[in-house]
Amino acid sequence: GEWPVIAIAPQKHHISVYVAAERDGTPVVQHYGNRLGRVTLGKNCLRFKRFDDLNVPVVQALIRDAVAAAAVQTRIYGRNCARPVNDGTKGARAAAVSETRRRRSRAAPRR
Fold this sequence. Notes:
Order of helices and strands: EEEEHEEHH
Strand content: 15-25%
Distance between the termini: 45 Å
Structural class: alpha+beta
Number of helices: 3
Shape: extended
């Protein structure tokens, strides 16, 4: 399957940019750190309130770097993503939802 290298998600109070690419085993976003402007960083995302808060030349370099890293990752993982989408394990939230559904199906019927 395909997975986006860069995704943008407008939130209520900020805009999130997710970058699904790694370089040397570290998310590409982490290589740019505080040079991106007035942003907050997650593991593989950056968040900002206004476009004026961004250091545009550095963000452009980040995007170029992410696209180049994704080309390498495609050869490694056989798809366009930072890591395999499904490594055979469930995430914590998905496991919790499955467990809740299993318990409800065993419970006595409601009256």
